[in-house]
């Protein structure tokens, strides 16, 4: 793992680590596969989490813990998409907007989770470089992946909210490649959001009786 944590190159004065670069490239691929509703998004996300776990383990324990949770949620997402495979008209999962009850539950879970994790990070300073933003990204990532696993369009909104904090935080703490990738995430999220939004409207559109299939 020492090789993965070595410097790959320097870009605009920022030292790029192999683990940071490779892990985030896998994460970017996972997001693109999620846009296409390919079930392979989950194994790729799991691999990204595994590599980034190695990048953070030993010096940023809180971030390593976040990646361990990401891997667990990736396994959950794989299971959910295996169950829902074929529900969409094109053989993939069907996507939808969350109900107001589901939205309220996710917002409440995100708020409570962020406070709880931030307080944990503050109680154990070695777990995090910046307790509140790190807790926000940690919990926001889990909520986003949960919504993705359930086929909810809100998954993309959650990722946008994570990006808003993730980009400056990664640059400020020396993970430049993570910062650059989060910028690209933002563009992919907007495209993916549009695609899922349109597909959810097609799924929800009622079929008129007697209309051709």
UniProtKB/TrEMBL annotation:
Transmembrane regions listed in the UniProt entry: 16-35, 42-60, 104-124, 136-162, 174-193
Membrane-related topology note: Multi-pass membrane protein
Superkingdom classification of source: Bacteria
Signal peptide residues on this chain, from the entry's feature table: none
Record-linked InterPro entries: NMN_transpt_PnuC
Entry keywords, A to Z: Cell membrane, Membrane, Transmembrane, Transmembrane helix, Transport
UniProt main location, coarse: membrane
Subcellular compartments: Cell membrane
The keyword Glycoprotein is annotated on this UniProt entry: no
Family, similarity comment: Belongs to the nicotinamide ribonucleoside (NR) uptake permease (TC 4.B.1) family.
Name assigned to this protein: Nicotinamide riboside transporter PnuC
Origin species: Streptomyces tibetensis
